[in-house]
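User: I'll paste a sequence; please echo it back and then give the predicted structure.

Assistant: Echoing your sequence first, then the prediction.
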Amino acid sequence: MKTFLSIFKESVILAFYELYSNKLRSFLSLLGITIGILCIISVLTAVDSLERNVRGSIQKLGDNIVYVQKWPWDFGEDYAWWQYWNRPVPNLNELRSIQNQSRYTEAAAIQIGLNNRTARYLDQSVENITALAISHDFSRIKDLDFLEGRYFSLNESQAGNNVAVLGYNVAVQLFNTPENSVGREIRLLGRKISIIGVLEQEGEDLLSMSNDNQILIPYNFLTSFMNIDNIGSEPFLMIKAVEGTNLEILKDELTGILRAERRLSPRQDNNFALNQLSLLSRNMNQLFGVINFAGFIIGIFAIIVGGFGVANIMFVSVRERIPQIGIKKALGAKQFFILLEFLIEAVVLSLIGGVFGILLVFVLTIIAENLLDFDFTLSFSIIMTGLLISIITGIVSGFIPALNASKMAPVDAIRY
């Protein structure tokens, strides 16, 4: 152990000496390692941060919720969209049947989103918002944190009163101070609507699932003056399972209820889709896997170039120290220790290039966060991946020079 530590210390010192003695050569040689690690770690960091954000957004959908929709979520090359085109959309009667008959349902709601709408208050207006028409139990399915005011009462939901809950950004743009918006009236969808609540700010996400730019209104209020079939959006049901219930059991129960409600014969296929979080997660895993693979391919080419640079440094280092190698072997140094000495030196050189690459990624994440207002995270596992790649590159690049050094005959080396 003492011998190994001595060799390790000497190899590290010699590695830094090589860098200092031949600055330009070392810089150019290690540049490939730095760029390679920069490429790989940048892609891994970007994908990891993107994946965290997307998965966080998906979690808002709920992992114990089944979505009854016209379209299934298993999009892919074999997606038979033409089979789903003429399917009926879920409706209030089906919602009531589920609420009355399902034993495994804790809460059920219907929702429809009207995009690209404009809300007005006096001379202020907000464009490109989403008017989200929801039934009463929506608040039992999705957590709503209120900055001011309250949610719809059961009577307001059932009667279809003209009341609304504003998302944070909508309230800010209409009233400047969201806290003062409760009790005022806005115009939306050609109707006057009273504000009864304002939601806490949620922040943006990549899947646009934040309520910040939405206005929540009772579903029955929307249907009182608008034909759902003619608005260009499709309603869907959200079914929250009783705690501890296996979603497959709930889906089997929902299938029976919906088939009976739609009067499907045993020979007919389901004309509805029961979607859940796992379908999105599987698609996301495939997408992020492809992106990670592409990043590795790009980075590997740069790593190969950098590996040749490290190998070049090591060949030169071996040549310059041939007499020293001969003396060490004449004094009894074994081939393994000579091999180990140069391998450690190659690994240290490669690690230096890798560390610089990781530091550059760290700086880039800070810059990107400020420019894009997006949370980039350089995780510990990604840092360790970069260092491991650097170590492997050093071992592969330095093995042949180290092997040549270890096999030199002492007499020939001393005479060199």
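The radius of gyration is 32 Å. Strands lie at 65-69, 105-121, 124-134, 146-149, 163-166, 185-188, 191-199, 214-218, 236-241, 273-275.
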